[in-house]
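2024-03-11 09:14:02 DEBUG pipeline.ingest accepted 1 chain
2024-03-11 09:14:02 DEBUG pipeline.ingest length=167
2024-03-11 09:14:03 DEBUG pipeline.predict start
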Amino acid sequence: MSGRATIVLGSCALLLAGAVGGEAWYLWGTSSPTTSPQRPVVVGDIEAQSVVDAAASDAATIFSTSWRRYDAHLARVTSLMTPDMADRYRTTAGPVRERVVTSRTTTATRVAASGVVRAARDQVMALLFLDQRTTSAGGPPSYAARRALVTMVHTQGGWLVANVQTR
């Protein structure tokens, strides 16, 4: 090998090592970004949307109730929540139980639209637009539209509902 070829190969190897070092610094040397008002979403679109989809599915389950299976419903939906949220939900759902069973109320909820408000690796806030159809004691159905802010947190058990605010 000639001296000129050695210099060219050495330069290429040095350039390649610099590129690999720069890429390694970029991938592992920077801290994880945090959400801010200027940058509310710091994860990829696919990851954020998959959590929003989970929030939509969980919210439809939580807000759909039947007087026939109220206790089973309560047990099922609290498994979708963090322990703190499940305790708060049980506290509010307990007093409602008698009214729902006595009036034979059934509510079916579907998510009409959803979107991400804020997203980080361990917490996502989703905005959901809910359509609800409620019947009581065989009467005519009533319809309501609601908005819900659902906060999902990542736990060892997966994504769980940590908070729900409805309007």
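2024-03-11 09:14:41 DEBUG pipeline.report The chain has two domains: 1-30, 45-166.
2024-03-11 09:14:41 DEBUG pipeline.predict end
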